[in-house]
Amino acid sequence: MWHDLWSVQVPIAEKVIRTVLVYALLLVLFRVAGKRGLANLNTFDFVVIFLLSNVVQNAIIGADNSLLGGVIGAVTLVVVNAGVTSWLARDSRAERLLEGTPTTVIEDGAVVPGALRKLSLRSGEIEQAVRLQNGDSIDGVALGSLGPDGQLVITLKRDEQNATRGDVEALQARLAAIEELLADLAARP
């Protein structure tokens, strides 16, 4: 029993290669699946992710059920992921290649034709994302783009934006100046 825990039944190099190849395959699959795959995971997406982990398990571990074999696979995944993440942070070309670029989905208060179909998004998902970012409706959005990470980033039209602290301070300064002028006018004989 103890021997089975520590005896790796698949050569370590093969286990590392299997893990790297499965990681690369899943990276490509999620890249091809597009931004929506990461944006709003629904029940079906969770089912796919759970099943994927089970489907690729044997591809990673092979005929090896040892504890040490599992540790080697897990360490390989973490190291490869850290390397890819570091590469993405340093190289903008790698970022564009592996993660993609933002896609404009809303422009001047209207959904960009074909954008939702291309990204497999429903209009309700876009409307909800707009409301979550303090927009009242798509009509009030100047620009909305779906980033490679699946996040919708919107810029509200100027007349739809909330006042900033700077706006309030500028207004207070103008009101103070008006009050001062009124006080001067009232003080004149």
UniProtKB/TrEMBL annotation:
Signal peptide: none annotated. The chain crosses the membrane at residues 16-34, 41-61, 67-89. Belongs to the UPF0702 family. Residues 92-161 form the YetF C-terminal domain. The keyword Transmembrane applies. It comes from the Bacteria. Keywords: Cell membrane, Membrane, Transmembrane, Transmembrane helix. It is a multi-pass membrane protein. It is found in: Cell membrane. The keyword Transmembrane helix applies. InterPro entries: DUF421, UPF0702_alpha/beta_dom_sf. Its main location: membrane. The lineage of its organism: Bacteria, Bacillati, Actinomycetota, Actinomycetes, Kitasatosporales. It holds the Pfam family DUF421. This is DUF421 domain-containing protein.
